[in-house]
Each structure stands twice: as structure tokens, then as C-alpha cells.
Amino acid sequence: MTGEQARHAWLDWLARERRASANTLEAYGQDAAGFLGFLTRHLGGEPDLAALGALRPADLRAFLAERANEGDSTATRARRLAAIRGFLRYLTRHHAMAALPLGAIRGPRPKAPIPRALTPDQARAVAREVGEVHSLGRHERPDMQAARDTALFALLYGAGLRIAEALSLDLRDAPLPGRDTALRIIGKGSKERLVPVLPVVREAIATYLRQRGAGDPGDPLFLGARGGRLDPAVAQKSLREFRRLAGLPEHATPHALRHSFATHLLGAGADLRSIQELLGHASLSTTQRYTAVDAAGLLATWKKAHPRAG
């Protein structure tokens, strides 16, 4: 069986057995054809089943390197590799081709997206004014909900918390004025960290608690309108409403406040290790993404201010 015959057999199997769509068949067919064309050049002749079964991980890496040189994006190369793996596995299972060490071939890893932070003015506006949305429309407990959202989003920006971390807090955890203890947070992977809380955030929480009313230490800190733990979707909806009211960008989300916390600390001179600890990142490489944000901000400022930048 030639490589081209194998390709047609695979596509026919995908259509009949897997009910693959026409678009999938076209994309996979092109990926396999491109791979076979590469192998013809790479091996000095059209590959047959035996040649395909004798491939090494280095041969597939050479193909991916050539595609990168031709301008394929990381995502495109990852898709091509997935198609080729499927093609070779099909030949192993259905045509007795020698099994290949496909597990040794790691696909290209896409770069993590650069976090999108708000400007300091935008973040402060959210932290101070988000409760205004509850003066509009119909809300069950507008004063409590306004104070709650102000306290919640001030905490997200002031302490860099994930929204799930903030909403998991109980009354016993409330950081109040006059307490110097840091907030104890259980983050991803049950990793514990201590986070200092600014006085302005403590005051916002104290204001909210006066509206909230008393409760047991194990009760949720942030309540929904009906007395249960606040749902993240409700908090996100409040911020979407405020975003439209205040003319903020679409990326003004609860998680953008965490990004803003880290970015603004970095811009003010904080070191990466300290920011890593405050955010609860397991790896410093995750925190290093914020250096790209800060560099982008510096470049934007330079282009705006430098007389020769245009």
C-alpha cells in the first residue's frame, strides 16, 4: 500500500465509521497530503506502509519545523500533528503497520495569552463605583447588593483574588478595620497563601457588613439576594452592567481585576517573586506573563508621548 492509498483509505474510514464532516475530511486530507509530500522529499521517494511504520519522532519534528519555516502558526502545526497522529494510528490498528512511539512527540505548545489589565483609573472606578448598578432597575436589596459588590470588587482588585477565592470566604474570614492579620486564602490545588488587605478594602467590607447583618461565623461572607452564597454569574452580571454604564472595555471582567492588581504592582516596582506569592502561582513562568503586559504599556506610553514616535 502506498502512502497515497493509505490516505484515501483513512479518509474513507473517517467518512463511513466516524461520520466526519466534509470540512474535517478536507482539512485532514490536506494535512495528510502535505505530510506525505514532505516525506517524499525527506526520504527520497514516495513512502509506502513499511516506510511509514519505520518513521522516527525526529521525522515528524522535521515536518513540523518545515511547516514553522513556511509560516504555520502554533495552532495550525498542533492541528496538523493531531491529524497525522490519527492517520498513523489508523494504519497501525487497521493495516498492521508497525506501531510508532507517538507519545514521544509533543505538539507545539501555544503561548499563553497576555493578560489584559485595566488602567489604574478603570480599576479604581470598578472598585469604588460598581455598586451604582443597583440603584437602577429592580433589585431585591439594593443597598446591601450595592455595598456587597463594592466590597467584593475592591477585594478582587486590592488583593488580587480569583473570584472563586473571594466568594468562598466565610464571615469568620472577613478582613475588618483594626485587624493587622493577612487574609488566608486557599487557592488552586489547595495551596494556601497569605494576602495583605488594604485599609480601604477593609472599610468597604465593614460598610457591606453593616448592610448585610449578623450571621454565624461559617455563613458565607458575600450573600446573594436570597441569603445563599453569591453566585459568580451574578457578580459577573453586575460588572457587565457597570461596564456598559461606565463605558469600560469588554475585557473589564472580575478576572481582569486580578490581572490589574499584578500589572499595577509590577509597574510600581514590585518584584516578580513577591507578586507570584501574592497571586498564588505555582510557577514563576505564569507570573512572568505580566512583564509582557507592563512592557506593552511602556511602549504604548512611549508612542503616545515621544515627539518622534509617529
What does this molecule look like?
This protein has a two-stranded antiparallel ribbon with strand order 1-2. The chain has two domains: 3-104, DNA polymerase, domain 1 (Orthogonal Bundle), CATH 1.10.150; 120-305, Intergrase catalytic core (hpI Integrase, Chain A, Orthogonal Bundle), CATH 1.10.443.10. Helix 6 (120-129) runs antiparallel to helix 7 (142-159) and helix 11 (254-267) crosses helix 14. 58% of the residues lie in helices and 3% in strands. It is an all-alpha fold. The radius of gyration is 27 Å and the shape is elongated.
Give a quick set of tags describing it.
310 residues; mainly alpha; hpI Integrase, Chain A; 2 domains; two-stranded antiparallel ribbon; 2 strands; DNA-binding; cytoplasm; cell division
Percent in helix: 55-70%
User: How would a crystallographer describe the biggest sheet?
Assistant: 2 strands, antiparallel
Give the end-to-end Cα distance, rounded to a whole number of Å: 61 Å
* Rg, Cα atoms, Å: 27 Å
The overall pLDDT, averaged over residues, is 86
Strand content: under 5%
SSE blueprint and pairings:
Elements: H1 3-17, H2 22-43, H3 49-53, H4 57-69, H5 74-94, H6 120-129, H7 142-159, H8 163-167, E1 183-186, E2 192-195, H9 199-212, H10 232-246, H11 254-267, H12 272-279, H13 284-287, H14 289-305
Antiparallel strand pairs: 1-2
Keywords: Cell cycle, Cell division, Chromosome partition, Cytoplasm, DNA integration, DNA recombination, DNA-binding
Protein name: Tyrosine recombinase XerC
Active site: 162, 188, 255, 258, 281, 290
